[in-house]
Write a structure and sequence with these properties.
single chain; 278 residues; alpha/beta; Helicase, Ruva Protein, domain 3; Rossmann fold; 2 domains; seven-stranded mixed sheet; two-stranded antiparallel ribbon; 36% helix; binds S-adenosylmethionine
Amino acid sequence: MRSSLVVQEVLKQISKTLENKIPRASREAQLLLMHHLNVDELWLITHQESRVSEYDKLMELVERRAQNEPLEYITKRVSFYSQEFYINSGALIPRPETELLIDTVLHNVKDTTAYLTFVEVGVGSGVISIVLAQHFKNAKFIATDISQAALDVAAKNIEKFHLQERIELRLGSLLDPIEEQCDYLVSNPPYIEDGVHLESNLSYEPQNALFGGEVGDEIIKKLLDIVLSRKINYFTCEMGYDQKDKITNYLKECNYKSLSFYKDYSDFDRGFTLEVEH
Ligand SMILES: C[S@@+](CC[C@H](N)C(=O)[O-])C[C@H]1O[C@@H](n2cnc3c(N)ncnc32)[C@H](O)[C@@H]1O
């Protein structure tokens, strides 16, 4: 009986299940059905009377969404910098504000043909290194993560964009697995204070991608120490909206060329670039 439902009826059914549980229920109903049928938006609009197969399987996905599991983990797709990446619960879902970290690097280094070595700490799904590699055609990237599950997601995306020759993944903490000299360090490290109560959808994401220690900025400070001691030219890093003063104070007695902060789309402080003196 249920398998004979057609697209428009199924959309209504899904929207009803999701309404009052998540925002944009009818839009997400479309996205879930498109994912289930492996069709695009145009097909959905033009096939309102087509039958939907495997209805029960579809409703299992809808139930997961009703429990507030992020849509990206259900569809295994995420959009970042106008491209589609693979994602699963082994890696943090890339956030729109992290696109600003990319823009900041592009602002700092105008010569996109330069033969640079970039290092990324905490590569997660790989989006930062991949998008930077697409812009800096001659650059080489070494990216670390403490999570093998995250590195597996990154490897899948690196393969998707055919960048295996230029992005190397290494399992390990911070820059421990890296002896090479590098020109530019980028990172979106975990920076939330341990124990902070987060919204329920965040409980589906890897916790070691979110929490940065008792205060929150511990990993950022360790990275600052490494950048200064290894004399890495540039370091661009995402941070918590309330960490600007702590980072500025931490660097008070240090020798560096410049320190500049950038804001996110909501006008919160969100990251910085440290340029080191040589
Ligand atoms: C906030 S996520 C960022 C992921 C991805 N770069 C992005 O922007 O979407 C932080 C990542 O850092 C990794 N991580 C946490 N502690 C680390 C450490 N000490 N060394 C290297 N990576 C670490 C986590 O596993 C996670 O993948």
